[in-house]
Specification:
The chain is of the alpha/beta class and about 375 residues long. It has two domains: about 5-200, DHBP synthase; about 210-365, Rossmann fold (3-Layer(aba) Sandwich). The protein is built from eleven helices and 14 strands. The chain has helices at about 5-15, 45-55, 65-70, 105-110, 145-155, 175-185, 195-200, 260-265, 270-280, 305, 315-335; strands spanning about 20-25, 35-40, 60, 90-95, 125-135, 160-165, 190-195, 210-220, 220-230, 235-240, 250-255, 285-290, 340-345, 360-365. The strands form three sheets. Strands 8-9-10-12-11-13-14 form a seven-stranded mixed β-sheet, with helices on both faces. Strand 8 (about 210-220) and strand 9 (about 220-230) form a beta hairpin. Residues about 295-315 have low confidence and may be disordered.
């Protein structure tokens, strides 16, 4: 898959003018697609079109700041949904709304979310519109459609509230790959991928900052430690580099989400084996993504037997969410280190959404023993 800057420019022009665009992950044939519209450009006709061709669950991605301003509290105190999607309590616009379900009522609610003169008291809870809170940093922190919607709004200089709904077939199944492309062509809608948006933003924004670079002595020999931070929290992420990686090509890489119980106190100590492997190959990068940071939070530690069956849940939403997190920060760190292609060390084959948007390709996957 190659990113397409012309496609982004065309989609942004259409989006800015108030057109609906189709957003997919990348060019994979199994892609699902979302219809996305800038909330400020919503009309009853556009909302009716979206509802007719999608699941009908109309969501409105927005910034954390706007959600706080409108007192849109999380839908549940503890979010254990597989995607960890940040739903708030559902809402309707208080003024002039009848049942709340009509295209006109939903349009009024959606447009009110973009009005800075509206406050918490202008909405009733629950309702028929489902706000979503996008991650700070957008697709550079989490390569999801929620973040893509808010980024599209910002790139088009529009209020950062979108309308998003997933495309489905007439029989209720989700549209994929060729079906999504055919739908977009039939209705004359521009299509853009999350990977394209990542590449577009990468040319303009840098969200990880290198803090320190020093030599360290590991159990497996000398290495270089490089620490990074983001603008959103004080946590520092870490890259341990073995050998000479200046050519940037086919670099052995492990993206590792911190798990204190396993990494420090576990019987198997997976990092020891990884460091030994990098020492034997004489080069490689271990990207250690800290727990509790924006984009890499892990709600609970998974049991070891579950980790051993990662290959069985390749398509699960939980795994997809972890991959979004790993790419958000991990790819930016690799890019800063000059890495352009990697030999990924992983317990299973992975398809990282948006990875090539960062200018990084997976040349090969080396499967680790569980």
């Amino acid at each position: 898959m190659t990113t397409d800057m012309t496609r982004v420019a065309e989609a942004l022009r259409a989006f800015e003018k108030g057109e609906i665009v189709v957003v997919v992950d990348d060019d994979d044939r199994e892609n699902e697609g979302d219809l996305i519209l800038a909330a400020v450009h919503a009309s009853p006709e556009k909302i009716a079109f979206i509802v007719r061709h999608t699941s009908g669950i109309v969501c409105t991605p927005m910034t954390r700041e706007d959600a706080r301003r409108l007192r849109l509290d999380p839908m549940v105190a503890e979010n254990d949904a597989p995607h960890g999607t940040a739903f708030t309590v559902s809402i309707d616009y208080r003024h002039g709304t009848t049942t709340g379900i009509s295209a006109e009522d939903r349009c009024n609610t959606v447009r009110a979310l973009t009005n800075n003169n509206c406050g918490p008291e202008d909405f009733v809870r629950p309702g028929h519109i489902f706000p979503l809170i996008a991650r700070d940093g957008g697709v550079l922190m989490r390569s999801g459609h929620t973040e893509a919607a808010v980024d599209l709004c910002r790139l088009a200089n529009l209020p950062p509230v979108g309308v998003i709904c997933e495309l489905v077939n007439d029989d209720g199944t989700v549209k994929r790959g060729p079906q999504v492309a055919a739908f977009a062509a039939e209705h004359g809608l521009k299509t853009v991928s999350v990977a394209d948006l990542i590449a577009w933003r990468q040319r303009r924004d840098q969200l990880v900052e290198r803090v320190e670079d020093c030599l360290v002595q590991t159990k497996s020999g000398p290495a270089r430690a490089v620490t990074y931070r983001t603008p959103f929290d004080p946590m520092h992420h870490l890259a341990i580099v073995w050998g000479d990686i200046r050519d940037g090509r086919d670099i052995p890489v492990r993206l590792h989400l911190e798990s204190v119980l396993d990494d420090v106190f576990g019987a198997e100590r997976p990092l020891d084996n990884l460091m030994r492997r990098f020492s034997e190959t004489k080069r490689g990068v271990l990207v250690y993504l800290r727990e509790g940071s924006v984009g890499v939070t892990r709600a609970v530690a998974r049991p070891r037997d579950e980790i051993g069956h990662e290959a069985e849940d390749h398509g699960s939403a939980q795994r997809r969410e972890e991959e979004w997190r790993e790419i958000g920060i991990g790819a930016q760190i690799l890019k800063d280190l000059g890495v352009s292609s990697i030999r990924l060390l992983s317990s299973r084959k992975r398809h990282y959404v948006g990875l090539e948007g960062f200018g990084i390709a997976i040349a090969e996957t080396d499967l680790l023993e569980s």
